[in-house]
Amino acid sequence: MYAADSSPFQLDGRRALITGGGRGIGRACALALAQAGAEVVVTSRTAAQLEKVVDAVETLGGSALAIPIDLATDDGAVSLNETLTSHWPGGADILVNNAAISPHVEAVENLQDDVWSEIFRVNLEGTVRVTRAVGAAMLANKSGAVVNITSIGSVRALPRIAAYNASKGAIAALTKTMAIEWAQR
Questions:
Q1: Which of 61, 157, 160, 183 is 20 to 30 A from 119 (CA-CA)?
Q2: Are strands 15-18 and 39-44 parallel, antiparallel or unpaired?
């Protein structure tokens, strides 16, 4: 982490939404963005983790809001966007799609359909839902940045996590498509 006055980039006045922001990469993104001056909103299904991130951001002198939510449903993404637009009427400037799960470590032949579906519902469909909802304001504002977190598993096969690898590969393809479609807008 950089000291506030030596950050290689400044995001004063910017608003950043980080999904899966309660721990790990999402937490690190929230802290780095806050340290660079952005106001952050973090989401996760676990409220207690989010509150710790909010406390850490505030300790850095930043501003943060926690929104505990399940992004695996259409209602979750809609609710998130409603809460977000009431908090930030102009929408987010930065979206970091980090929310993901990989609850089962199974060989492909043992992978159950419901497990496959759950991983895709959270990892890929959650990313699509949030991006559609939050991205609409970015497109209207003709400004914004979307960062989709994938995995080495999206380009290099890792054993016993086929559904996770495939979901992250799909996000990588989605990201490339969005870059082409949204760059002109």
A1: 183
A2: parallel
